[in-house]
Amino acid sequence: MNADGISEFLGVARAGTFTGAARVLDVSVPHVSRQVQRLEARLGVTLFQRTTRSVRLTEAGERLQMSCEKLAH
User: Is the four-CA dihedral 25, 31, 37, 39 of positive or negative sign?
Assistant: First the structure.
């Protein structure tokens, strides 16, 4: 699997916001958003439920986060 977007995805999952992920990763918010959108398109799933006030992992997002965390350990 192409790893592009994984660090941004994990950043958002951990921080709970695209802004928080961008701050931690030292990149722009649009960069994080684009990378996550590209990852979602490649995987064919929605990883986050987005509203104007919140970001939550979908079931697919939770599974991906768990898989990535297992690989990191």
Answer: negative
SS (H, E, C) the chain: CCCCCHHHHHHHHHHCCHHHHHHHHCCCHHHHHHHHHHHHHHHCCCCEEECCCCEEECHHHHHHHHHHHHHHC
Task: Name the pTM for this structure.
Answer: 0.91
pLDDT digits (tens, 9 = 90+) for 15-48: 999 999 999 999 999 999 999 999 999 999 999 9
